[in-house]
Design brief:
heterodimer, A: 449 residues, alpha+beta, two-stranded antiparallel ribbon, 13 helices, disordered N terminus, B: 271 residues, alpha/beta, Rossmann fold, 2 domains, six-stranded mixed β-sheet, four-stranded antiparallel β-sheet, 8 helices, 30% helix, globular
């Protein structure tokens, strides 16, 4: 009985977990797509290859626990900050970016159809931590505390292009030619323990917090923004930048500009928004495929569970039937007596049906209690790896698989079904024995000892 | 007194044991008047129980007729027979056959369970019957807390529940010691005497049988002999001095002996 209850409970719990995952992932992808579409004319240029490290599906998004303060699937932590042009080796990539000479800036500015070029310096600060993978191998990883992003606060750029965060939740945004000011995220605010108007100390230098930006939906939660020149002097990177955002004059010329940049400087890694978009779409397809696999796994388990339930139902009815047959045999004389003193066939039959049902009712109560208590344990034994992502080998080997099976919901509806089921089974199993009892011939029953 | 409550006409009952046909009852012609107290005696296998079962409508005759209150029950389907058993017949068994998980009162109420009597009616009737069999105050006792004799009294009370036309008792004293045997016989005799209950009793015990009006001897499925019992014609007399008595357990006003007790204790007193 308890097994009958725990299996559907486990399935329900896992299904809701997978639905949650699906929902979160599609939200994230939708948000990312919107971001990318807004900046179609943007081309990201850096010396670091963009796709593999920070962006890889396995690395960033499912590697739960890697991202500080990470709720497992909060949309904001998807893919390590590609919205702001750090698509590749972004803030969470471990802090290692290849610095490039600022002279690229002037080179790229001369290319035809380039409307503007924004040099950007990104430096992550953090601490090392040791992570033990599932296979027992340990890794030392830098967990970023915050990421400094130096933005050229030039009026022509700041006013015309989306190089600064767009949603300010407190205070104001950075302004042209501003120095000694920072725009921080809510996470930074918590990390430094400061608010708007306060002064914070970054790498030994004081900055005034002018505002707090909200998460744009695609992780820049750890990023604080300041003037490029401030960032360069602060991090001892005078004359160096880590990436360039090149803006074409229209979305039609983006590919041409990207090609020109590549031919001019073959060593540079060039990513257009369109490329990013197609990558995202591939990712979405990939994600959909995986969800499909997960769903089919789930369906398989459900089918299996259904078969188990059918077996349990048949077995239960048979047990009830044999027990009741034994009872009827045992009480032949009593049945004979009842008939001799004027009980009709129907009276006898309903008597035994009632007994079977009451017996099953007790079994049902015990089963529901047992099932409620034992379902979480049973579920983890019976369905150990239902988590659709944890068991498919993703997650880069670092993150812990989500323990979707630990939470089992035993809902009242299910209990009622189990309860009603037990009554039904009792009635079903008693049917034949009760009929046998009602057909007992009293004269023969009296002779029976 | 001439009204017939039970009548059989050339009634036979055949059993099939394997390929062999066994004639258990052969052309029985029996007439039972209302208020009679009849004993059936006979050796083992003579068909006593079969006769009782056929008379009690829990077995059917192979041929012939059984008329209960002038209704022919031999061809009646089970869907009607059970009502007849409930309303017209009261069974008393050798092994009492009380339901062990019901108390005395509930056992007595069983036959009234399905015939539309209200709960309070059933309750008062069962109390009345328990009083009649001398077990007032034992209503809530289950069978295992009652002695064998007390259990049989409860069984007799159960048989009387629906005020049946006839009581069929199959060796009612067979499982009782001599003291309880006397009590039960006394109870049946008094029921017959004071309430006019028609009783047919199967017994092995000639002492028990002698307290009825008519004793039928059954042999090989036939009634071979019929004799008069002591309890005849409602003219109960003290066996010692001949004084007329009202009740079987009443003490004789002249000789201070109880009719039935004395007769069964000391057969020498009779004659």
């Amino acid at each position: 009985m308890s097994i009958m209850i725990s299996i559907p409970a486990g399935i329900a719990a896992n299904q809701s977990a997978s639905q949650q995952l699906t929902g979160d992932l599609s939200n994230t992808i939708t948000a990312a797509e919107a971001q990318v579409n807004q900046t179609l004319t943007q081309i990201d240029v850096s010396l670091t290859p963009s796709a593999p490290q920070g962006f890889g599906f396995g690395g960033g998004n499912l590697n739960l626990g890697m991202i500080p303060g990470g709720d497992n699937f909060a949309p904001g932590q998807f893919g390590g900050g590609f919205a702001r042009g750090m698509f590749g080796a972004g803030a969470f990539g471990g802090g290692s970016r290849n610095p490039m000479n600022e002279s690229y800036y002037s080179d790229l500015s001369t290319i035809a159809h380039v409307a503007a070029v924004a040099p950007i310096l990104t430096v992550s600060e953090g601490h090392n931590t040791t992570i033990t993978g599932r296979n027992g191998i340990t890794f030392v990883r830098m967990v970023p505390d915050y990421t400094i992003q130096g933005i050229p606060l030039v009026s022509s750029l700041v006013e015309n292009y989306r190089i600064l965060p767009q949603n300010i939740t407190a205070g104001r945004n950075l302004q042209s030619a501003e120095s000694g000011s920072v725009l921080i995220s809510a996470n930074n605010s918590a990390y430094f323990g400061v608010g708007v108007g306060n002064t914070i100390d970054i790498l030994g230098k004081s900055f005034t917090v002018v505002g707090i930006h909200g998460s744009t939906g695609v992780s820049d939660q750890l990023t604080l923004y300041m003037n490029l020149s401030d960032a360069q002097s602060l991090t001892n990177n005078l004359g160096y930048i880590t990436s360039l955002q090149v803006f074409a004059d229209s979305s039609d010329t983006v590919s041409a500009v990207a090609a020109d940049i590549s031919s001019l400087h073959g060593e540079l890694d060039v990513t257009t928004s369109q490329q990013r978009l197609s990558t995202l779409q591939a990712m979405q397809a990939n994600n959909g495929e995986r969800l499909q696999i997960a769903e089919s796994t789930m369906n398989q388990i459900q089918t299996q569970a259904f078969q188990e339930i059918v077996i349990a139902v048949v077995a239960t009815s048979l047990i009830v039937m044999f027990v009741m047959l034994y009872t009827v045999r045992e009480r032949t004389k009593e049945i004979g007596t009842l008939k001799a003193i004027g009980f009709s066939n129907w009276n006898v039959m309903s008597q035994f049906m009632l007994e079977g049902v009451i017996l099953s009712l007790f079994a049902g109560v015990i089963g529901v209690i047992m099932g409620t208590v034992a379902a979480p344990f049973l579920s983890s034994v019976l369905l150990p790896r239902v988590n659709p992502f944890g068991n498919l080998g993703f997650g880069g080997g670092f993150g812990n698989p989500i323990a979707a099976t630990t939470e089992v919901i035993v809902d009242p509806q299910l209990m009622l079904i189990a309860f009603g089921g037990s009554i039904l089974l009792g009635a079903l199993g008693s049917l034949y024995p009760a009929w046998r009892a009602s057909r007992t011939r009293p004269a023969e029953a009296m002779r029976y000892e | 007194m001439s009204e017939l409550v039970l009548k059989t006409e050339d009634m036979s009952r055949t059993y099939t044991l394997g390929k062999r046909n066994v004639l258990a009852l052969s052309e029985i012609n029996l007439q039972v008047k209302r208020g009679e107290f009849i004993s059936i005696m006979g050796p083992s296998g003579s068909g006593k129980t079969t006769l009782l079962n056929v008379l009690g409508c829990i077995d059917k005759p192979s041929s012939g007729k059984v008329l209960l209150d002038n209704i022919d029950v031999s061809g009646m389907p089970e869907s009607q027979l059970y009502k007849l058993r409930r309303e017209k017949i009261g069974f008393v068994f050798q092994t009492f056959n009380l339901l062990p998980y019901l108390n005395a009162r509930e056992n007595i109420e069983l036959p009234m369970e399905n015939n539309g009597k209200s709960k309070s009616e059933r309750n008062s009737r069962s109390r009345e019957l328990l009083g009649m069999v001398g077990l007032s105050g034992r209503e809530e006792h289950r069978p295992q807390r009652l002695s064998a004799g007390e259990q049989q009294r409860v069984a007799i009370a159960r048989a009387l529940a629906n005020d049946p036309a006839i009581i069929l008792a199959d060796e009612p004293t067979g499982n009782l010691d001599s003291k309880n045997k006397k009590e039960i016989v006394k109870l049946l005799a008094n029921l017959n005497l004071n309430h006019g209950t028609t009783i047919i009793m199967v017994t092995h015990d000639s002492e028990v049988a002698e307290h009825s009006e008519r004793v039928l001897l059954l042999c090989d499925g036939k009634i071979t002999k019929e004799k008069q019992g002591l309890h005849q014609g409602k003219k109960l007399k003290c066996i010692k001095c001949g004084t007329k008595l009202q009740s079987a357990n009443e003490k004789c006003p002249s000789c201070e002996k109880t009719a039935i007790n004395d007769s069964s204790v000391d057969p020498a007193h009779r004659s």
